[in-house]
User: Fold this.
Amino acid sequence: NTDAGLIKNITSSIFYSGINLLSKNKLEKNASDFFAISKKVANVLRKKDKKVVVAVNKIDNYMRDQENILEFYALGFEEVVGISGEHKINLGDLLDAVISKFDRKKEKSREEGLKIAVLGRPNAGKSSLVNKLLNEERSIVSDIAGTTRDSIDSSLKYDGETYTLIDTAGIRKQSKIEDSIEYYSVLRAVKSIKRADVCVLMLDATELLTEQDKRVAGLIYEERKPIIIAINKWDLIEKDNTSVKKFTELVKADLPFLSYAPVITISALTGKRTINILEQAKFINEEYHKKITTGLLNQILSEMIAQNPVPTRKGRAVKINYATQVGEAPPRFAFFSNNPELIHFSYQRYIENKLREYFGFEGCPIDIVFNKKNEGY
Assistant:
């Protein structure tokens, strides 16, 4: 049996290797045979607990061939890289993927630790929050909007962890964006969001959401960063035992795309609950990097479908056969279906809600893709 001999040889190679590169030409004639063999090889690799990078060759056009790459996530490995050996496309990415598998922890630099960007409109209390957490006056703060000078990085230690707070100049109204200073403040905010591990959106309890706030929230969402919403100046408003719930509902109604974001009420002036931001940021960063095993994910998928079967559309049955997590930071999941194009957005939302119900991911965006199930699987 040729396949048995091939598997035997591959198994022998796996035994002696530290990192394995599973390669497949996307245009191979005997694709179905390869799928059967690759599943067997994948099973051997899993049993041996080996580090694996799947390389899909002959990906000459990354955008056009994206679907061909996605189907190989069904093998159950996180690292799948599309390459073209002939045209030398993405070979650098392949090398990066292999190097990342070496036994070197991707630790953040000791100097920076967990990076938290504090964002919001001018005078929302960003610098006051940073100063309260630092217990010192490093920024120049006054009652005039926008008087804090440029972005400032400050480090502190709390409960054995190092944090870097990125205090960013506020974003003004769109009508004044032509002003070069304010234009560059937006660029700095975007740069801070990109650098950050976790973003804190500061709101003013005395004004709540403005268009500027929504704009900052949109920037954070577009960058797929985890987020905490902090309602500042909580000490300045009249409140009762229902106020937190009411304010949270108002914020979620105005920012429906950030429904997953936790809302914390604070007072940067008095320090009330400000330390919760550090604790929450650490937790959310762990959620952002959480990895769900393929076995557990498919067990939950079965429960999801049993509770709420995928609706038939246009007279055609729709099945979701398999799912796997294909990335983290943000969490990214691939679902394989016989008719992925017929899965309604409401059912996609149902899946996301169920993923959050079962696995948490508080404060984190979740990316979900649906792909055509290959007959070989």
User: Anything to note?
Assistant: Residues 311 and 318 are 7 Å apart (CA to CA). DSSP finds eleven helices and twelve strands in the chain. The chain has three domains: 2-99, 114-288, 294-372. The longest strand covers residues 320-327.
